[in-house]
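Quick one, tokens below. Sequence please?
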């Protein structure tokens, strides 16, 4: 395959990476270019979403086996581009309200998306590392985007320091996997491991270090401590973007990586990951119960969702892989929509973030309350919303793999989550308002909430459409 054909087969990655560079140059060279950078970013991401659909039929790897083409990667190029578009639409009125609309925001968002797309195309451990770090560095800066607010700067510092520490584990894990298998490309690793590793202990340690490094990125216990403070301190639209795109991209990238490592994954390692998943589900949900700040509550629930996603890794079967990918897609829209509603309700300087301040929202703004209810029902895992089918596939995959006890713990965690998710609904629908609630965001942010809710409903009512695609590509 010639260079042009290879570039076309991974067109979304090339397009978003090039767009990020162009937007950065426009920011540097053109005065008062904020409007231009917004519209360029929006148009580029729409083009990227279309390019993802156009490359679905491609297959195999390109650039000497370093990038996967088509299939699941192309599908998630489209979904990640859609998440970027929704974030842009929500961010513009939010940043204007806060008086913080600078061109750097759009540049950083595009670079983070480029890293996320590189991750989902990774077929080589070097690309996996480059993608995760490109995305993370952009997130570190975005977390501290409100540079004059102490909590935002503190969030960025905590995220950066712990992220740098986790990167060391990730690199050591990659080095040990390479040392024990003699390969970095996923296909070559899998081929080597089928014949047995010459250094099996070193390989298991390497896989364990990979789990630690990735565990920080998706916030599993005990590598979750940064999440509540970072999610609360970062600008709300940034939190929406980080908590969805960041987690989904890493989870999607884990599927081909751990399928390649599957010949070396022993029962003991599966049990260790299952234990981490159970602890993550329980701690995330139990801690979320006692939160009064809605951003912290959603942060702890995000930790719990990482535990649910890990169940696919534990299962190590096709149903588990498909369940992971489906739940990652559903999570993109339900979590993003919930955080944008939070951004709409809060006022300048990030006030009105207490759950008690949502009292009577249904009377003042019934449509906004109804849309928030859709996201909360889906996050809880109630039918007919997308979250239900994601959990269903993950729970049944764990049972098929012999981890019934993990599925039971996941069900218990879901029951606990119903308490704090429905607590927000009780405040919105069954309590008298303390004051007149006036949503501070409108226009394009409203479009984000509507489109996210439609995606959650569509994935819940027609789950087989996406699942059949995923199963065909696996």
């Amino acid at each position: 395959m010639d260079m042009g054909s290879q570039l076309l087969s991974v067109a979304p990655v090339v397009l978003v990476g090039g767009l990020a560079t162009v937007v950065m140059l426009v920011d540097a060279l053109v005065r008062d270019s904020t409007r231009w950078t917004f519209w360029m970013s929006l148009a580029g991401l729409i083009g990227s979403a279309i390019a993802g659909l156009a490359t679905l039929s491609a297959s195999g790897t390109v650039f000497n086996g370093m990038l996967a083409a088509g299939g699941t990667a192309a599908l998630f190029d489209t979904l990640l581009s859609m998440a970027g578009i929704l974030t842009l639409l929500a961010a513009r009125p939010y940043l204007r309200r806060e008086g913080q609309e600078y061109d750097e925001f759009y540049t950083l968002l595009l670079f983070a998306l480029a890293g996320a797309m590189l991750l989902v195309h990774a077929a080589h451990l070097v690309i996996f590392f480059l993608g995760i770090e490109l995305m993370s560095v952009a997130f570190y800066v975005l977390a501290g985007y409100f540079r004059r607010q102490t909590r935002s700067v503190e969030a960025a510092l905590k995220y950066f320091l712990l992220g740098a520490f986790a990167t060391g584990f990730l690199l050591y894990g990659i080095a040990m996997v390479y040392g024990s298998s003699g390969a970095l490309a996923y296909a070559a690793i899998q081929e080597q491991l089928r014949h047995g590793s010459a250094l099996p202990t070193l390989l298991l340690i390497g896989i364990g270090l990979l789990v630690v490094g990735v565990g920080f990125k998706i916030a599993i216990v005990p590598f979750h401590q940064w999440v509540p403070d970072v999610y609360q301190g970062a600008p709300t639209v940034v939190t929406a973007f980080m908590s969805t795109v960041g987690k989904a991209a890493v989870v999607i990238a884990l599927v081909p990586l751990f399928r390649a490592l599957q010949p070396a994954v022993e029962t003991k390692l599966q049990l260790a990951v299952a234990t981490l998943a159970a602890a993550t589900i329980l701690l995330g949900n139990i801690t979320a119960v006692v939160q009064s700040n809605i951003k912290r509550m959603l942060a702890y629930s995000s930790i719990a969702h990482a535990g649910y996603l890990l169940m696919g890794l534990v299962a190590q079967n096709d149903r588990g892989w498909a369940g992971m990918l489906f739940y990652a897609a559903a999570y993109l829209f339900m979590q993003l929509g919930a955080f944008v509603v939070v951004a709409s309700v809060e006022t300048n300087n990030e006030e009105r973030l207490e759950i008690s301040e949502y009292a009577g929202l249904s009377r003042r703004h019934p449509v906004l309350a109804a849309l928030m209810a859709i996201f909360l029902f889906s996050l809880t895992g109630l039918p007919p919303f997308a979250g239900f089918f994601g959990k269903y596939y993950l729970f049944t995959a764990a049972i098929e793999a012999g981890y019934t006890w993990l599925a039971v713990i996941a069900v218990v965690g879901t029951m606990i989550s119903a308490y704090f998710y429905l607590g927000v609904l009780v405040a919105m629908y069954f309590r008298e308002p303390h004051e007149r609630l006036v949503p501070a965001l409108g226009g394009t942010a409203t479009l984000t909430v509507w489109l996210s809710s439609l995606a959650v409903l569509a994935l819940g009512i027609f789950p087989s459409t996406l699942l059949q695609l995923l199963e065909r590509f696996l």
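Residues 150-181 form the longest helix (32 residues). The mean pLDDT is 88.
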